[in-house]
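Morning run. Coffee first, then this:
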Amino acid sequence: MSETWFWADTHLGHANIMKYCNRPFQSVEEMDEILVARWNERVSNKDKIYFLGDFMFTRRKGDPDAMLDRLNGQKFLIIGNHDSKPTKNAKGWNATYRLQKVVVDNQTIILCHYPMFSWQGSCHGSWMLHGHCHGTLQTSSNYSGIDFDRLLLKDVGVDVCPNPLSFGEIRSEMNAKESNLAI
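And here it is:
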């Protein structure tokens, strides 16, 4: 049986992301190897994985096709702001999108690199999964008026979720959130 996974913001090959996001790695090579291992420990070749942007830093070096060859699963890219032309055009993606609606086990999910506070079906139980914010969205003063507990919104980036998240894991979290809304 196959599973559906979601993840974002690995920034493979991007040394400065370790400093910006306080990632606990000694080198960019160590970060890349650990993130590849985490991906492959969870995702099998039969599975689908939606990667919600900022996959790999290719400005100085890096071969997205070679990296994608190392990763398990049917891979779908939701393009992020750091996904260069070589990353977007890599042959290892099954498809690439800017914004995508998927349905998994009768659950509608809107996928975008960037968070949205209103999305298709947001008032009717659909979820919004995103990356980009590196875990800072809810602590930003720019969004102090937003009640995040009332939104079926989830940052699936590495700095929030150190491993890819399965649909089942996200469903459990969203069900708990919906239960709290009913109270």
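DSSP finds five helices and nine strands in the chain. Good start to the day.
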